[in-house]
Amino acid sequence: MSGEAAGTRSDEALVHATLAHRDERAFRELYRRHTPLLYRMAYRLADGDPDLAQDAVHDTWLRAVGTLHGFAWRSTLSTWLTSILVNRMREVWRTRERRPTVPLVPAHELSRPAPLHAERLDLERAIAALPAGYRTVFLLHDVEGYSHEQTAEMLGVEVGTSKSQLARARRSLRRLLEPEETLS
Amino acid sequence: MSTPTHPDEGPLDEAVLDGLRRRPEPPPALEDRVVAALAAEGRLGSRAPARRRWLGQLAALAASGAAFVLGRASASGPPAAGDGRARWMFLLYEDEGYAAPTADEAEARVQEYVAWARALARQARYVDGAELAPGAAVVAPPGRAPRDPRSEGPQLAGYFVVGATDLADARQLAESCPHVRYGGSVVIRPLVQG
Hints:
The complex is a heterodimer of chains A (184) and B (194).
Chain A: H1 11-21, H2 24-45, H3 50-67, H4 77-96, H5 123-129, H6 132-143, H7 148-155, H8 159-177
Helix pairs in contact in A: 1-2, 2-3, 2-4, 3-4, 4-7, 5-8, 6-8, 7-8
Chain B: H1 14-22, H2 28-40, H3 58-63, H4 65-70, E1 86-94, H5 106-122, E2 126-131, E3 155-164, H6 167-175, H7 178-181, E4 185-190
Antiparallel strand pairs in B: 1-3, 1-4, 2-3
């Protein structure tokens, strides 16, 4: 996930330089290594709102650097940062009561054809239409490549829950992406 | 990896997923916003904020002792180096090779730089010096995107203005600066004489 090229400093070395020396360049290297994933996640969890996504990434880094001293490296830095971001977005959802704006497919309807929108949804809109839990698991596992174990740890759920939510997310996405003519 | 119980529950097409991994990219300005916020909290800046570092005490040196030693300080302008020496600016840069002090080492490092400056002051060769604080703003002409010069290459960390007879003399002074001993580099520039 953190993808270090030959000759680059490890996450641990950069974290050490950031904490011990307040080394801005080390921090910028960390930032550039991990922020693309964080921003992608934030953007999609924020229903494509770039301002909200930027605020979430900003808050994630401030929270992370403020608590890095306590990070024990039992997980990767990327996993830890992503879990902070996801929790930050959960806080946003709670405080703003932001919910997906596209009608969802109830789980009990997934086994039979469901008439959806006449307009075909593209993938981004389909992802935005997923319930928050499905969407988060889908993004973490299928898009960003985290394992079910990592995903479950980040979300504070059982591995089985991660698996079942992913299966439902994929199924929902396929339905949302079906060509219009096959829906009726 | 879960075992799909239904074909619809298998992974989506990898090419489609790969497209999701490439966009959207974070706005470039977000990096500086995060760095500025961390610097404002005292968490970035290569400095121990509660403890003055190597050039932190030099303003007082220039304003009092050095000016007295130089004997040419005037209320209307900066002091000039004595004995008619030309003035030279030492631009002190740091990169990964600079051994920044830990919090415990910071005070001793300050004293090394100050001792070096005091030695110059005793020879009437010290004019000015200061350490750059964290944080910066860039002002660009209308229509041109601001570019932060700190975004790449060695970082300008501070400066001295000293008196030296010629470039060779200035070079000799620069080589004696503690900054070089700790892995920093010094760019020597002559100042236009007024």
